[in-house]
Design brief:
The protein is 33% helix and 21% strand. It has 203 residues and is an alpha/beta fold. The protein has a single domain, classed as TIM Barrel (Alpha-Beta Barrel), CATH 3.20.20.70. The strands form two sheets. The protein has an eight-stranded parallel barrel. It is globular. It starts with 5 loop residues before the first strand and ends with a helix.
């Protein structure tokens, strides 16, 4: 089992969300730069949140087929520390993006429906991959598909206080990525954040 599994709380878009993150000192906080998401943060809000969040916590910018120059600008300004790709970005896109920010860590998300999706994830040029449901439903994909998956990964999609311990014991992911799983009525829930952190720390 991975020791000290990391946790990313994604979809931070309110000042009190940042305060919850600081209180429990988790590893990563995610900003969603996708206008169709109700968790969307523009550059100014993300900058304000970055200043509010403890500097020891890394911020992750979540993008969907975004302009590479915009991503690079956010990274170079220090608003985000890690780049997460959630659209149709291919190997050429990642290669070009690295030219803009050669020292940046890049994560890439994959919607898992069948073994072929995992084969694609296995070949990704990204520094880290995220295995996800892919539709923002807050539901898990078929976890049995990743029973024998070899590459280090982040588990997302439907992870919550009730199932995170089981997922940790079964798959030992490098990290968990949670958003709706720690929300109540689309608002980050401090009790749920505390519960998932306690579950992982208890392992």
């Amino acid at each position: 089992m991975v020791i000290n599994m990391k946790i990313k709380i994604c979809g931070i878009y309110k000042i009190r969300d940042a305060d919850h993150i600081n209180k429990y000192m988790r590893d990563y906080a995610g900003f969603v730069f996708y206008k169709k998401s109700h968790r969307y943060t523009d550059d100014d809000l993300a900058s304000a949140l970055r200043k509010r969040i403890d500097s020891r916590i890394k911020t992750v910018g979540v993008f969907v087929d975004e302009d590479k120059e915009h991503i690079a600008e956010l990274y170079k300004k220090g608003i985000i520390n890690i780049i997460q790709l959630h659209g149709h970005e291919d190997e050429d896109y990642i290669r070009e993006l690295k030219k803009y920010v050669p020292d940046a860590e890049i994560w890439q998300a994959f919607a898992v429906r069948e073994k072929a999706d995992l084969e694609k994830a296995q070949r990704s040029a990204a520094d880290m991959i995220i295995l996800d449901n892919g539709y923002g439903t807050g539901k898990c994909f078929d976890w049995s598909l990743i029973e024998s998956f070899k590459r280090e990964f982040i588990l997302a999609g439907g992870v919550n206080p009730e199932n995170i311990r089981d997922a940790a014991e079964r798959f030992s992911p490098w990290a968990f990525d949670l958003s709706s799983g720690v929300e109540t009525d689309r608002i980050k829930d401090e009790k749920k954040i505390a519960a998932v952190i306690a579950a992982v720390r208890s392992l």
